[in-house]
Specification:
single chain, Lambda Exonuclease, Chain A, six-stranded mixed β-sheet, three-stranded antiparallel β-sheet
Length: about 140
């Protein structure tokens, strides 16, 4: 896979033979364009914004309309409640209303007060009220 330059600070990753080591899951994963974005965003949360690595979950399972799905990243607060849901796409995938709707379907189950959409080049952050009203934010919320 050709590694595209993304809109993130520079991070160092263990990469070999088409795989990347996921520090969150402690295993080697196939290095797809979407995984490249997911690994960068996880590092942005932990290394740049100081979110606790122990409270970040990658590829968590959930059920949407009785269909099995996987959320890309979910950050939990110190009480174990979902805090931030991140939907990652490959860099060539545009962040459209369809991507927002997908993330909102996942968040209907997860119920995080913050939602992020990213393709590694463009990042969109929203606060989401308990009744589903969303407001776009300029930056990630502070943790804690």
């Amino acid at each position: 896979m050709e590694r595209v330059m993304l809109n993130f600070p520079p991070f160092s990753f263990q990469v070999k033979e088409g795989k990347i080591f996921c520090e969150l899951r402690r295993k080697w994963l196939v290095l797809t364009p979407e995984e490249w974005v997911r690994q960068h965003f996880a590092r942005l949360l932990t290394d740049t914004f100081g979110y606790p690595r122990a409270l970040l979950r990658s590829e968590g399972g959930l059920s949407v309309n009785r269909m099995g799905r996987r959320s890309d990243l979910v950050m939990y607060d110190r009480d174990g409640a979902p805090f931030l849901l991140v939907e990652c796409k490959a860099p060539e995938v545009q962040i459209t209303n369809a991507v927002l709707e997908q993330a909102e379907r996942y968040n209907h189950v997860i119920r995080a007060p913050y939602l992020v959409l990213t393709n590694g080049l463009n990042h969109f952050v929203f606060s989401v009220s308990p009744d589903g009203i969303r407001m776009q934010l300029e930056d990630l919320p502070a943790f804690g």
